[in-house]
Structures are given as C-alpha cells and as structure tokens.
Amino acid sequence: MADEDAEEGQEWDALRMRDDEEMGFFTELALHETERWIQAITRKKFEYADDFRKSLGNGVLLCELLNNLQAGTIKRINKLPGAIAGLDNVNVFLAACEKTFGLKPTQLFDSSDLEDLTQRAIADEIKKNPINYIIQV
C-alpha cells in the first residue's frame, strides 16, 4: 500500500512539473506575441528586449499604445524619469482602459504588477513598510 501511494505521488509530481513547464512555455509565447503586437501598433521597440515588465513599467509605451488605437485618449504622458511618473502613466492608462474602452477593473492588471520585483527592491520595500508584509503573512 505504501509503495502504491509513493508511486501515485511521484506520478502527480511528474504531472505538476509538466503542467508548470507547459504553463511557462505558453506564458512566454503570450508575452512574445503581446510584445510584437504593441511594437506593431506603436512602431516603437521595447526598451528592454529581455524584460517585458521593465519595458512597460514607466507606462509611456502603454499610453502611446492607447493613443495609437484611438487618437487623443491620453492627453498628457509623463516622460520624466522616476517611479512616480511611471505610476502616474500606468494609472492614467488603466483609467483610460475603463473609461474609453469600456474594460472592467477585473479585466485589468493592478498598477503594482509592473513594479520592480528584484530582491533589492523587495528588501528596500520591506524596510520602508514592514507592517504591510507582516499583515500579509
């Protein structure tokens, strides 16, 4: 009985690993297709070819995408360097997606999804506001 349980556990582990590999493959495929589509509409290359999140993080390309889909959607794009300008652009993009294109909040990503998730950024964020992380745990 124990051998059967162990064998069944190994089979499930193998299936989960295959599912994870397939999900990774299809995620990469979707990211590549999305990048290609954004570049085709905006006629601009991603600034960081190997980092989808970082290329969209300042929100400029997202705002330009909407303006190419419907002229004048975004009146002002904040091109100043810095995280605050990027957050402003992403929030303007998300608001325009709702107002102009009729998307629901459940169909949109959260602006924090584009934040820097490197270990250093996470460590810096924990130092700044530890209570938020403690509550989540």
Automatic annotation (TrEMBL):
Query: What is the official name of this protein in its record?
Result: LMO7-like protein
List the signal peptide residues. Answer: none
Q: Which organism is it from?
A: Mya arenaria (Soft-shell clam)
Instruction: Show the taxonomic lineage.
Output: Eukaryota, Metazoa, Spiralia, Lophotrochozoa, Mollusca
* Span of domain Calponin-homology (CH): 30-128
Top-level taxon of origin: Eukaryota
